[in-house]
Amino acid sequence: MPQLLHLDSSADPDRSISRRVTARFSDAWHGIGTDHSVIHRDLHSSPLPHLPTSALHWAPHLRTADETVDPSAEALQVELIEELISADAVLIGAPMYNWSIPSTLKAWIDYVHVPGITVPFESDTAPLVGKPVVVVTSRGNDYTPGTDNASADHTTAQLRQVLGVALRMDVHFVPVDLTLAERVPALAPQIPRARANLEAAFSAVDDLALRLGGATAR
């Protein structure tokens, strides 16, 4: 049964663009067949606690003798890692907040990025290698390559480093720029482009869901 792990992190449950686009992907995934299931984890409405100790950054066998971990915190980490590993594909809604990712998404990353378990350390431990992950990055202004704001996009680079380089996943970015065009007067002239960007994102996730969902079913 092909399974999708769907993560949302927007703090706006009603008007979020990233949530609209991830929902579109999830619906397309469901539409492939009744065997295509989805686990949805809303990191905003049900936020994860921040790591209670730096010991959780390491696999148990790599911790020092004086490092102790609360059993409930370790159980949560095991749950999140197993959930990630068991998924056939991953979908992440990552709106840009202050030029970076929401803290709720960062908390999830801190639990699942673990040398010796999900990241190679003393051996080639890479259970996520090649696993597809679709990242919907919504940004209020225009951060496309070549624009004046491009260098301020610290969302894409951070997630490419963690997901693609460290965890060795197959990362597909779906950017949606100018999401604040209809709210910020100075961006009002960009409303047609903003609407076109959203439609392009819908088309991109429709294609990705069919392609990745079909691949996992084979």
Largest sheet: 5 strands, parallel
Strand order of the largest sheet: 2-1-3-4-5
Helix content: 25-40%
pLDDT < 50 runs, ≥5 residues:
none
Work out the number of β strands: 5
Class based on secondary structure composition and strand pairing: alpha/beta
Shape: globular
Structure annotation, total helices: 5
Order of helices and strands: EHEHEHEHEH
On the 0 to 100 scale, the average pLDDT is 95
Distance separating the two termini = 10 Å
Query: What is the strand content?
Result: 5-15%
What Rg is obtained from the alpha carbons, in whole angstroms?
18 Å
Task: Explain this structure.
This protein has 218 residues and is of the alpha/beta class. Helix content is 38%, strand content 14%. A 5-stranded parallel β-sheet has the order 2-1-3-4-5, with helices on both faces. 34% of the residues are buried.
Short summary:
This protein is α/β, with parallel strands linked by helices.
Q: Which features would summarize this protein structure in a list?
A:
five-stranded parallel β-sheet; 5 helices; globular; alpha/beta; 218 residues
Helix and strand layout, with pairings?
Elements (H helix, E strand, L loop, with lengths): L2 E6 L8 H16 L4 E6 L28 H16 L2 E5 L9 H10 L19 E7 L15 H13 L3 E7 L14 H27 L1
Parallel strand pairs: 1-2, 1-3, 3-4, 4-5
